[in-house]
Amino acid sequence: MSGTVAEAALSRSAIDVDCTAMHTSGHPAEAFTIGMEEELFLVDAAELQCVEQMPEAFRLEAKAALGDHVKREVIGSMVELVTSVHQSVASAGEELRFLRATLAGIAQRHGLALLASGTHPFANWREQRVTPKPRYDVVAESLGSLVKRVHACGLHTHVAVRDPTVRISVMNRIQRFLPILLALSTSSAFWRGEPTGLKSYRSAANDETPRNGLPTRFRDEEEFQRFVAKLMAAGYIPDQTFLWWSIRPSLRFPTLELRITDCCTQLRHAVALAALYRCLVHTLAGDPDIAAEWEDHHYLLNCENRWQAMRYGIDARLIEPVTGATETVANLARSLVRLLEPSALQLGCADELRSVEAILEDGTSADRQLRIYQAALAQGAGPAEATRLVAAEIAALTLSA
């Protein structure tokens, strides 16, 4: 598979990166702690339509049970679950499973349900309401009516990279692989009751807002901070949390936050992607030469790869920026998994990393949504009934192990 994105960019890792190299380079495995955040839709259990605002009784019970692990989102029909900091992907996944199950139980008592998907199959963004909260008031003022268009749920994964210089270096180089992660996560095939032709319409909706998509490369931490300072001095943003890029350094934690991925309907898919991301960060932090070759036009090629992943998901073909060769996402993902195995063994997440194969074999949530929709139409259902069946399937899988 020479000439593929994964092998061209990670050609040295299979030979040079091993456990000893990681430790002697100052990046021990235990330093790469992980945390996961996922946004979910809160819907009426009977109709599966989004609520206008989170009911106060539900919010209070959820807060009493989960504390700061549950948060309101900018749109009133969305809720966020946040894990603790973990030493292993497995324990982070177990906590997220507990959080989902607990919140789902509370929702059921209030006649509500949870949907884990990048977009809701038939909700109308125009009917959404902004959550009354000072920060969200600032967001709404900044975005105007576009704030309601951000009615989309993502999976955000934090991995600790404590050295700011290394953090920026990894952020620069990991972008070559982000279209693969997006393709594997796609779960937003519908918008306002219609198939969009995209596997990740969430990405397209987010692109309507500023400071989204793939960031440029920064020479170092100092250049990044100068960039943020200029935006703040101009009054465009209050702080760097208003950088909504596909990947960004966290303001509050010494982490690199992956934001490109859609919310995964099946929890096991989320855990597999968390393992893939953590291993990739670990490998890149250990070898600054991996994916270092870069010309200005490579950014545009990578943006094209992101579009291909948005459009076709795991059926996409991506271009290797240096050689110009193209390869399927499936082959790239399998190659990447093989090349990350040394990191997976050191980080204790080899089983979770290998679970990427299940996504490739079964398809993503977007693939499943489209199969259900087409099958319903073939059996005589109308579009409205078909999209409701899609929502029902998402709700059921949100609760599955």
Structure characterization notes:
This protein has 401 residues and is an alpha+beta fold. It has a single domain, classed as Creatine Kinase, Chain A, domain 2 (2-Layer Sandwich), CATH 3.30.590.20. It contains 19 helices and 13 strands. Strands 1, 2, 3, 4, 5, 10 and 11 form a seven-stranded antiparallel sheet that branches. Helix 12 (267-286) crosses helix 15. The longest helix is centred in the first third of the chain and has 21 residues, at 89-109. The radius of gyration is 20 Å and the shape is globular.
CATH topology: Creatine Kinase, Chain A, domain 2
Helix fraction by DSSP (H/I, runs of at least 4)? 40-55%
Whole-number average pLDDT? 92
Count every helix, treating DSSP H or I runs of 4 or more residues as helices.
19
Low-confidence stretches: 1-6, 8-26
Would you count the extended β strands for me? 13
Most strands sheet:
7 strands, antiparallel
Highest CATH level, the class = Alpha Beta
Q: How many structural units, i.e. domains?
A: 1
Overall, the morphology is: globular
Measured by DSSP, the beta-strand proportion falls in 5-15%
Class computed from helices, strands and strand pairing: alpha+beta
For the termini, the CA-CA separation is 35 Å
Q: What is the architecture at the second tier of CATH?
A: 2-Layer Sandwich
* Cα-based radius of gyration, to the nearest Å: 20 Å
